[in-house]
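in:
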């Protein structure tokens, strides 16, 4: 890998290759069973981000034939893992997508043994008071309200989406996802003080788990991650999209059903 610690890579739908020869047979088989354009596009987008992240981190190049050496597969519980040339790698990976963009988070070699990572991408979109009351804990609700009271134009929505995103990231680390009650995870947001754009999160679960978290706001997007291991936030891999300059898209709306072969 090009450097120690966590690394992240973002891309948009325009980075998805036009053909499917960059997918391994198991990926193409799964894709063939997807009827809805939204699901197909998100599946391809996550794999595009993950494969390009691995190829960049390991210096493999990004030609379709090279990307076809890398498989983004899923364990029975849904968590992703990576194979290169048919051999399972020993690093953890987490994938997320939202509004036509995806992010891959790579752990250092050896991290797969612990199942240590979760990442989530959201857009700053309207969130109702009912949403906040239903899915956030009372301390989190108070913090979202305080962000609105500060007077920022999107303070309520930015805060609500940040908390929601951090919960999703933490639940990925626990390998339960949204099958769990989101109020079982408690998020504390620390002010954004770093020059690299990352802010800290303290995340704890009602079961006793505690996670290190990081967050950043890039334009219309908010990105969060959770990990079991203390350390610095991830470094950005070269060649990826700049989320701060990216626009959320919902291309699937034009053709909700995928063309049938």
């Amino acid at each position: 890998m090009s450097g120690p610690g966590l690394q992240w890579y973002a891309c948009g739908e325009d980075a998805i290759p036009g053909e499917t020869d960059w997918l391994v047979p198991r990926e193409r088989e799964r894709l063939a069973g997807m009827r809805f354009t939204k699901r197909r596009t998100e599946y391809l987008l996550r794999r595009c981000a993950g494969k390009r992240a691995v190829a960049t981190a390991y210096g493999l190049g990004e030609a379709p034939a090279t990307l076809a050496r890398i498989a983004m597969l899923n364990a029975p519980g849904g968590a992703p893992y990576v194979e290169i040339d048919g051999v399972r790698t020993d690093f953890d990976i987490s994938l997320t997508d939202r509004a036509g963009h995806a992010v891959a988070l790579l752990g250092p070699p050896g991290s797969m043994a612990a199942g240590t990572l979760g990442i989530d991408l959201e857009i700053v979109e309207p969130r109702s008071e009912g949403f906040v009351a239903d899915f956030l804990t009372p301390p989190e609700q108070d913090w979202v309200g305080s962000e609105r009271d500060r007077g920022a134009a999107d303070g309520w929505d930015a805060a609500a989406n940040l908390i929601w995103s951090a919960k999703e990231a933490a639940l990925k680390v626990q390998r339960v996802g949204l099958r769990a009650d989101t109020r079982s995870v408690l998020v504390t947001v620390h002010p954004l003080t770093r020059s690299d754009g990352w802010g800290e999160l303290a995340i704890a679960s009602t079961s006793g788990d505690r996670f290190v978290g990081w967050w950043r706001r890039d334009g219309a997007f908010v990105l969060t991650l959770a990990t079991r291991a203390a350390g610095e936030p991830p470094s950005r891999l070269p060649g990826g999209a700049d989320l701060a300059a990216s626009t959320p898209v919902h291309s699937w709306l034009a053709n909700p059903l995928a063309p049938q072969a």
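note: The mean pLDDT is 91.
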